[in-house]
What does this fold into?
Amino acid sequence: MLFGLEDTYRINRNRLGEVNPMSQKKDRFKLQEGQTTMKAVVTNDNGGYDQLEYRDVPIPTPARGEVLLQVLAAGVNNTEINTRLGWYSSKVSSGTKAVTSGEKDEAKEMADGGWNEATPFPFIQGTDCCGRVVSVSPDGDQNIIGSRVLVRPCIRSSGWDSLENIWMASDFDGAFAQFVKVPAEEVFPVNCNWSDAELGTIPCAYGTTENMVHRAKVTKNDHVLITGASGGVGSAAVQLAKRRGAIVTAIAAEKKLEQVQAIGADHVIARGTDIVDALGKKSVDVVIDNVAGPDFGKLLDVMKTGGRYASSGAIAGPIVELDMRTFYLKDITLIGCTAWDQPVFPNLISYIEKGEIRPLLAKTFPLEQIVEAQKEFTEKKHVGKFVLIPPQLNDSQKEYLRLKPSHV
It folds into this structure.
C-alpha cells in the first residue's frame, strides 16, 4: 500500500518524507557520506525560476508497498509552475501568467499555495512520469522489475469512496529527477511502440481530461465546447471527446486553429471571438473548460438547458462572474474535477494500447534545462506538451541498482 501504510489507504503525511510547515526550510536532501546520488530539480520555495535548483540528491529508498522507478521522461504542466508561484493560494486572484510579486509573498506567508496542506518545500516536482521499474520493496512483485510504466499521479488517499486526494509532485516528491519512488498500486505497465517522451505527455493532461469527460458523461449525442484546445489538457480533450463520438467545437489562438482541427475538432473558434455570436445560445451540451477568466459567463450562455460544465483549472483567472439565474434557470450542472475516478487511468492505458489516442509531443528538453522549458511553456506558442528527459545513469548508479534489486 501507500508509503509504509499497511492495511488502509489513508495518508499520514509525515510518512511521505515531507517537511511539515514548522521545518520547511530544512534541507532534507542533504547528502550523507557514501550515499549514491541522482540528479534532480529541487524546488526550494514559492517564487520565481531562481527557486529551481538542479543538484545532486540521494536516491530514494522504497518502503513497504512502493517501487523505485528510473524516470525516462517527465512532462511539463501548468500545475508545477502554479505550485511554485503559490497560485493556488486564496490570496491570488490573477491568471497564472499574471501573478504579482506581492501575491507570491502573500502566498508564501499564508503557506496555502499548494493543492492541499502547505507545500512541502524543499521538494521535487514533476507530475508526469514515464519510468522503468528498477527496484521493489521486499514484499513487492519482483516480476514487475524492468517494466516500462506510467504513474497515476492522483492518489485517492482515503479510498475510492472518498474524494480526498493527494498528488505526486504537489504533496510528495515527483519525477523531475533520475529516480522516483511511488506506491506500487499507482504504477501501470504499458505496452506500445510510443517513445518514452511520448508516454511522458500522458498522465496529468490526459488523466485530468479523461476525468472531466468521464464525469460529464460525454456521449456521441453531445456537442462539446473545449476552451484552450491547443494546450495539454485542451488537446487531450479534443481527442477524448471525439473518441466518444461527440461533435467538438474547440477554441484556440487563431494561428493554432489548423493544428487543432488536425487532431479532430469538427469546428474551431479563434480565441477572442464572441462565442455567443459564433455559436448562439443553447447550442452546446458540455463545456470542458480550464481557462475560466472573464469569458466564463458566456460559456454558460451557450449551454443548452441541462448542460454540463466541467473544469479542473483557471489559467485566465480563478475569480469569475456568475449570473445565478443562468445557472439555475437552465438546470446547468457545474462539475469540479480534481480527484480522479477509479476507471480513468486504466481507461487511458487501454486507449494507448489500442491505438485510440495519439501523443502530442511538442518538444523535449534535458532535465537540467527546466527553466528554459518552463519559460517557453508559459509563452503558449506550442500545441501539445513539453517533456523533460533526465540524464542517463552513470556507472555508480548502475552498480547501486545491480547490488540492490530490492530494498529494505
